[in-house]
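Fold in tokens:
===
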Amino acid sequence: MAVRIEEKIVAYDVVSETGEPAATASVKESKKGIGRSGREEEGNVIHMQPLMKRPGELTGATYKIKTPLSEHALYVTINDIEVNGKRRPFEMFINSKNMENFAWIVALTRVISAVFRHAGDATFLVEELRSVFDPRGGYFKPGGKYMPSLVAEIGECLERHLTIIGIMHPPEVSEELMAKRQQAQDGGVATGSLCPKCSQMAVVRLDGCDTCLECGYSKCG
């Protein structure tokens, strides 16, 4: 049977099969109504945390990235702001004489800076950047460390900065992995193959099983 509601709806309850209320929500009236696009302009919009204002002076650090992709280095600057006595990243700039990647680098730094300024958890950016692979292939840094792309190295640079200011912590190395590294060193293992998990040239054969000395990945589980 249809019931006509004469009064304004200010809340509603979702009732489960047992008859008990499962959730309660409020209905807020839109301040600006419906726009020309047919969407509510202010009514049920979920906003992020309030945008932090930039002070006149910030403290930060600049990191140099030198890759075999270009003869010119990239200089990554990350400035921090103090919130409740702790340093937090506030903005990122990347400068280089090489203008080949200028457009996407500017777009990347603006998006990252926007995430910083909303005071949210920015640690997820590290994994997102480091998982970007260049279709043309990556490159090896001095020492044999593999980088899947220039974006991934920018992500590693951000991880280093977040670790320095105390937001991220370096991964703990288990005793088992330390023992495997020592076993490889005692056995005279000099080179390794590419790890499918961490993309490092650190997979060696120990006790009849391929094992990564960097992240602990093993085909034998």
Notes: The chain is about 25% helix and 25% strand.
